[in-house]
Design goal:
single chain, 9 helices, 18 strands, 33% helix, 32% strand
Length: 340
């Protein structure tokens, strides 16, 4: 009798555990990911990949929380819990979030290529072809008129080659005015009229309720391909720039070291703040990285670099944490580095 009760209790417990495993909570859990070598992902025509050292991107793993992952994260120093609205924008679906992340990676790759080629004095041209819509805010004027993936090319007949130009043209209008937006959808050009409303995050400013990303087309000599598969976000910008540059020049700028890092990069070569750097320090240490580049943010308090130092001290890593404000800072450090 007791064995039967025990068996039934066990079965019920297993069923409850399985159900709870599939019931998600309104949170995301992030944890240290991996450090991945970039040479297999980047291919410059005629570039040398047989260097003794390597440049590596670092990742953070993220997933929706269930009861078990939430509880485990509560007692882990390097697993973090975030409410959904701190990861996804308001009314943004998983599909929209993933789309946005992948396009941010595409933008990051193109910027990395431009900066690296310019530094190596190679031919590169970055041409903007309009702006992609990667989110549409519910209840705002663009809802039902524009969709994720539309490429906006004109406002009132005037070209909008970048997201900055688009925002400038909208900002010059008044709330209540109507604009004609020309866009491409499935290779077909269309035009729609949209009445400006108050920007949801900027009181008194006009907006239509979309988020944008510039659509760039890049040409280079020598040719280059970068395969990022399903890696999303802009945070690998600096490391992509270093790998591309290393394949463009004759010398091995890694000097035989395993070098990881993080930080978005803009067209000026500035290294920008990212999220999850403490978890990336753990991932890099687990991979046996020698040197880690961290955004210094021009010495701002609580910079990524300062956060990285705290994590590095906590896990007692031997990895060297190096602050950088620009791509040139990273190159200058590597030029002074002795061969391993």
């Amino acid at each position: 009798m007791k064995s039967k009760m025990y068996r039934n209790s066990l079965i019920i417990g297993v069923i409850i555990a399985v159900v709870l495993n599939f019931v998600t909570l309104p949170y995301y859990v992030t944890r240290p990911g991996s450090a991945e070598e970039l040479a297999p992902l980047v291919s410059v025509d005629g570039g040398d990949k047989d260097d003794a050292g390597s440049f590596m991107l670092t990742t953070v793993k993220m997933g929706k929380a269930n009861v078990f992952t939430y509880a485990f994260a509560k007692f882990s120093d390097y697993q973090h819990i975030y409410p959904i609205n701190q990861i996804r924008r308001e009314d943004e679906s998983d599909e929209e979030y993933n789309y946005r992340q992948l396009h941010m990676m595409e933008n990051s790759k193109e910027t990395a290529i431009k900066v690296a080629y310019a530094k190596a004095e190679k031919d590169v041209e970055l041409i903007s072809r309009g702006v992609y819509v990667f989110s549409v805010l519910e209840g705002m004027p663009a809802e039902g008129k524009l969709a994720i993936g539309d490429r906006i090319t004109h406002i009132n007949g005037e070209k909008t080659p970048t997201s900055e130009v688009f925002m400038e043209k909208v900002s010059a209008k008044k709330i209540g005015e109507t604009i004609e937006v020309t866009y491409e959808r499935q290779k077909k050009e269309e035009t729609t009229s949209i009445k400006l409303a108050e920007h949801p995050e900027k009181e008194g400013s006009p907006g239509i309720g979309i988020s944008l990303l510039t659509d760039y087309e890049i040409t280079t000599d020598p040719e280059i391909t970068i395969d990022t598969a399903q890696i999303g976000g802009p945070s690998a910008g600096l490391m992509f720039t270093l790998e591309v540059y290393n394949q463009l020049v004759e010398e091995d700028i890694s000097k035989g070291y395993n070098i990881a890092g993080t930080g978005a990069i803009n067209e000026k070569g500035e290294v920008l703040r990212i999220g999850g750097i403490s978890q990336k320090i753990v991932a890099a240490d687990n991979a046996g990285v020698d040197i880690f580049f961290a955004p210094n943010e021009n010495g701002a308090g609580n910079s990524n670099y300062e956060e990285a130092l705290v994590a590095a001290k906590d896990i007692k890593t031997k990895m060297k944490i190096v602050p950088v404000n620009t791509f040139d800072d990273a190159i200058a450090y590597l030029e002074k580095l002795k061969e391993k």
